[in-house]
């Protein structure tokens, strides 16, 4: 946790409240995970050569501007998910008229009630979400959902804190990953297309090493 993120304190953990509070009490650009442009995510999405009408599910999208940029690039079938309704409300507000291009789903990736109704997803996009799931049950729920909704030949793009990365974000402990751990979690159905290390510098100047991995469902 960065020192100035004082509004990200964990008391009793109701995760929905926790994240809503983080988004309510902090200006977006002061959130420890805020990047004004999702450069690496956009680069890797473009590498898939998916058509502009591909169904792209952005899980735990929060304050990310990736939806804004994908709309500007012409993508027309975007789904924005988060546990925090506040973050999706802010995103909707920011997008204005463009919000009509996006499906908003407030739902819990580890106990889905709406996300599990989706199918035929061409790309699952996660930056800085999976690493919050620590228990076996949470991880299983996340990967079961992913396998349920991502179509054959579909892509999975995951960016998480690398093994040498920080131990906490927004006051919450993390599971850090390398590419092999991501591959093991996804299983043999998914083939690694590309991976990279990227050190994100957060709004407080803190270095946050991430690993990005793009997989395709090939079996
Ligand atoms: C560190 S933020 C990253 C936000 C965004 N992906 C980005 O890169 O800026 C983690 C996000 O995951 C969301 N989140 C946490 N647990 C979740 C869950 N169980 N289901 C869906 N979203 C969740 C939080 O509300 C928050 O927006």
List keywords for this structure.
two-stranded antiparallel ribbon, about 30% strand, alpha/beta, binds S-adenosylmethionine, seven-stranded mixed beta sheet, about 220 residues
Please count the helical segments: 6
Strand content: 25-35%
What structural class do helix, strand and pairing data support? alpha/beta
Report on the biggest sheet.
7 strands, mixed
Unreliable spans are none
Percent range of helical residues: 25-40%
List all distinct small molecules, including ions and cofactors, that are bound in this structure: S-adenosylmethionine
Strand order across the largest sheet: 3-2-1-4-5-9-8
Could you report the average pLDDT, rounded to the nearest whole number? 94
**Which descriptor suits the 3D outline?**
globular
How far apart, in Å, are the first and last alpha carbons? Answer: 39 Å
How would you spell out the order of helices and strands?
HHEHEHEEHEEEHEE
Radius of gyration over alpha carbons? 16 Å
The total beta strand count reads 9
């Amino acid at each position: 946790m960065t020192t100035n993120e004082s509004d990200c304190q964990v008391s009793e953990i109701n995760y929905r409240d926790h994240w809503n509070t983080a988004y309510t009490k902090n200006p977006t650009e002061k959130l420890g995970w805020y990047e004004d442009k999702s450069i690496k995510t956009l680069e890797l999405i473009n590498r898939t050569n998916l058509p502009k009408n591909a169904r792209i599910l952005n899980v735990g999208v929060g304050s990310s501007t990736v939806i804004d940029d994908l709309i500007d690039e012409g993508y027309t079938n975007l789904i924005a998910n988060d546990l925090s309704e506040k973050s999706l409300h802010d995103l909707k507000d920011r997008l204005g008229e463009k919000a009509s291009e996006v499906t908003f789903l407030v739902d819990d990736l580890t106990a889905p009630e709406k996300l599990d109704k989706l199918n035929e997803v061409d790309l699952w996009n996660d930056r800085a979400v999976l690493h919050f799931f620590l228990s076996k049950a949470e991880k299983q729920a996340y990967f079961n959902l992913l396998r349920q909704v991502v179509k054959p030949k579909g892509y999975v793009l995951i960016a998480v804190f690398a093994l040498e990365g920080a131990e906490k974000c927004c006051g919450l402990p993390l599971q850090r990953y390398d590419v092999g751990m991501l591959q093991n979690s996804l299983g043999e159905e998914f083939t690694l297309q590309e991976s990279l290390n990227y050190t994100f510098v957060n709004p407080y100047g803190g270095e946050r090493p991430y690993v990005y991995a793009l997989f395709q469902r090939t079996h």
